[in-house]
Amino acid sequence: MSVAADDNRRPRDSDRHRQQRSKNVFMFFFLLAVAAIFFALTIVRMGGGAMTGKL
Questions:
Q1: CB within 8 A of 51, min separation 6: which ones?
Q2: Which of 1, 4, 15, 40 matches a 20 to 30 Å C-alpha distance to 31?
Q3: How many Å apart are CA 9 and CA 4, to the nearest integer?
Q4: What does the angle CA 6 – CA 12 – CA 14 come to, to the nearest 5 degrees?
Q5: Which residues contact 43 (CB under 8 A, 6 or more apart)?
Q6: pTM for this prediction
């Protein structure tokens, strides 16, 4: 029974591949959040008033 269930899986659908894929997705969102925080801090330090039209 379990052999038949394993035949329906894709070649890259092993537990190790799924674990690595979830790590990759986590790292993508983590790096995206760090970049967004860095961008926001840069805008604040440069003076956010320039973004609202005050020169």
A1: 43
A2: 15
A3: 10
A4: 55
A5: 51
A6: 0.60
